[in-house]
Amino acid sequence: xxxxxxxxxxxxxxxxxxxxxxxxxxxxxxxxxxxxxxxxxxxxxxxxxxxxxxxxxxxxxxxxxxxxxxxxxxxxxxxxxxxxxxxxxxxxxxxxxxxxxxxxxxxxxxxxxxxxxxxxxxxxxxxx
Length: 128
Description:
By secondary structure, the protein is mostly helical. The chain has helices at 20-27, 40-127; strands spanning 2-3, 9-10. 75% of the residues lie in helices and 3% in strands. A two-stranded antiparallel ribbon has the order 1-2. Helix 1 (20-27) crosses helix 2 (40-127). The termini are far apart.
């Protein structure tokens, strides 16, 4: 989300534009000072405005919930992919460490043999 130049919040979700001023008009509609002037028609119109505002709000909330669910699923998939990559890398690391240990052991064995051969060579040269 980012704030646009006119101070509105801009989102990348696909929710319909909610006309807040309409909802506010419904929520803040003035009550006549005298209840004697209120007719059944006025009350029905007021109820209809509240129902409209409620339906608009529920629609926006449903769209928002869908967007949240989609985003959560996207993050779940990204997390699963990262975990799988981590497992693969840990497996490669284990194999590399094992290979390094084997090579180190072979090198140490070869160094011991080289020392043996060198000692035998020195011994033969002194004997001759």
